[in-house]
Amino acid sequence: MKRLTLSITIAIMAAFPGSVSAAGDAGAGQQKAQVCAACHGLDGNSTGKDFPSLAGQVPGFIAQQLAKFKSGERVSALMVGMVQLLSAADMADLDAWYASQTPAPRAIGEAQLETALVGQELFRGGAKQYAVPACMACHGPDGHGVPVNYPRVAGQWPEYLESQLLAFKSGERADPVMGPIAFRLSATQIRAVALYMSGLQ
Ligand code: HEC
Ligand code: HEC
């Protein structure tokens, strides 16, 4: 009897491989990501500056943000409709798919190098007199992020990074960690550090 139960369990596990693991299935995620491609690109390298790239994001961060859009903790007029029908398993699959994709590098134009250097100083050293910590302490020395909570910022659209820092600063995107940090940055510093991060590879 015990043997029969065991073989039935194995058969079920083989039929539904995704259901036995908390980690997502990238192949299933690719299918589910078709509705996302118009904005976030087929491979997670997005189609324009208004849409964040998702390729190569740290595992776990995308699922976490999708859950925040669904609960209303993070507000976006475009994303709220996209997440209503997603289950936790769907979110894990989408997460696994985008995390497995390769982010396209982004170059910083020569005319912007001076601004990027100001951003580099902030990213690597923070601003002690304003109690701003170095961004790389959490986002990594190359901006590749640290799973699960600290997102990759390298290679992201500078306009998106800037808009999110301004949203953290105003409280529109409420976050207990990034809120106080962005609050102490000027709009000029935000623009500079966003530019620098976008050029990291
Ligand atoms: C109509 C365009 C559109 C579609 C389709 C769309 N998104 Fe988005 N998505 C956006 C925009 C705009 C944002 C930025 C929201 C903000 O400013 O907070 C975003 C943000 C995100 C973020 C947060 C990224 C980050 O770095 O914080 C994730 C994750 C995400 N989308 C996943 C998805 C997934 C998965 C789908 C498909 C199920 C999808 N999106 C479909 C427009 C779209
Ligand atoms: C103590 C850790 C910590 C430090 C230091 C830190 N961050 Fe963050 N950052 C986070 C966390 C956590 C999030 C995710 C917030 C959320 O869940 O919405 C985040 C999110 C972000 C995002 C949004 C990315 C996205 O794709 O949605 C940007 C941009 C960002 N940080 C920039 C910076 C900059 C610039 C600095 C330095 C001035 C900095 N961070 C310092 C922890 C940190």
Structural commentary:
By secondary structure, this protein is mainly alpha-helical. The chain has 2 domains: 22-99, Cytochrome c-like domain (Cytochrome Bc1 Complex, Chain D, domain 2), CATH 1.10.760; 110-199, Orthogonal Bundle (Cytochrome Bc1 Complex, Chain D, domain 2), CATH 1.10.760. Helices cover 52% and strands 0% of the residues. The protein is built from 11 helices and no strands. It has helices at 2-15, 26-32, 37-40, 61-71, 77-83, 88-99, 113-125, 136-139, 158-170, 178-183, 187-199. Helix 2 (26-32) crosses helix 6, helix 4 runs antiparallel to helix 6 (88-99) and helix 7 (113-125) packs across helix 11. The radius of gyration is 19 Å and the shape is globular. The N and C termini lie far apart (57 Å). Residues 4-21 have low confidence and may be disordered. Bound molecules: heme C (2 copies). The site of one heme C has 18 residues, from helix 3, helix 4 and helix 5.
Key traits:
201 residues; mainly alpha; Cytochrome Bc1 Complex, Chain D, domain 2; 11 helices; 52% helix; 0% strand; binds heme C
